[in-house]
DNA sequence: TATATTTGCAACCATATAGTTGCATATTAA
DNA sequence: TTAATATGCAACTATATGGTTGCAAATATA
């Protein structure tokens, strides 16, 4: 099984999925699948697959209501990516300690 | 062609590539391919492919010296991931404005 | 010079991924 | 009740991905 961080990174590595996710975030409300797929050129089933990947990564939540399935964005898991990045931040942020001082602290 | 951000995200979405990259970062020095591959269970050619992906994403630089090819980590492109994340940060950081205020500003 | 080391290239394999279409089913509306 | 809508499931396709092995070429060492 893939790790959580791997699932999240793979989910956002696809440009179409990033678009879907972003659309859901700015919509700021749950949207049924057909409505989402109406905004994209690919088929509904293609969208459904992407939604599944996003759901597995925890980036969206899906709730069934009647015949519809409402998708809601949940950006919280992106915190994990942010945390992963944190270590490397020192390399582009001059205000942070650089690598050599990290290595010094480790020794 | 894939966008820069897509290349970077795909590069770090693979756990083996994250490991290779991290090893090069903490090594803080250029390492020849054979030396890198010695630290992993997969074949040298497998490593070479991963290095190519990392190089295409700009996350490592490779320099030939004699028969050896020295790989050096370059975390700078991760800044792009950081920038992409920035927009969603408000959802996990309470000190930032929330989505509704973003939407208000947009209106 | 002969040998060992480092590497690239090419072919190959299995599986994952991104997409499609067709059809059945459940729910809602006329 | 009949028709329209929203969805899932399954099969299929093409290409990408992560890995392997064998071999040739370039460079360094004995």
CATH topology name of the domain at 4-76 in chain A, in short, is Arc Repressor Mutant, subunit A
What is the CATH homology-level superfamily of the domain at 4-76 in chain A?
Winged helix-like DNA-binding domain superfamily/Winged helix DNA-binding domain
**Main β-sheet of chain A, in a few words?**
3 strands, antiparallel
Instruction: State the distance separating the first and last CA atoms of chain A.
Output: 35 Å
Count of strand segments of chain A: 3
Keywords (chains A, B): DNA-binding, Membrane, Transmembrane, Transmembrane helix
Pfam family, one (chains A, B): HTH_20
GO molecular function (chains A, B): DNA binding; DNA-binding transcription factor activity
Protein name (chains A, B): DNA-binding transcriptional ArsR family regulator
């Amino acid at each position: 099984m893939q790790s959580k961080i791997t699932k999240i990174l793979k989910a956002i590595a696809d440009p179409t999925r990033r678009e879907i996710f972003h659309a859901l975030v700015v919509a700021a409300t749950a949207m049924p699948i057909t409505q989402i797929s109406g905004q994209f050129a690919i088929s509904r089933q293609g969208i459904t697959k992407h939604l599944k990947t996003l759901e597995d990564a925890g980036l969206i939540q899906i709730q069934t209501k009647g015949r519809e399935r409402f998708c809601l964005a949940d950006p919280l898991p992106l915190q994990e990516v942010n945390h992963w990045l944190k270590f490397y931040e020192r390399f582009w942020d001059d205000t942070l300690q650089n690598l050599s001082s990290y290595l010094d602290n480790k020794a």
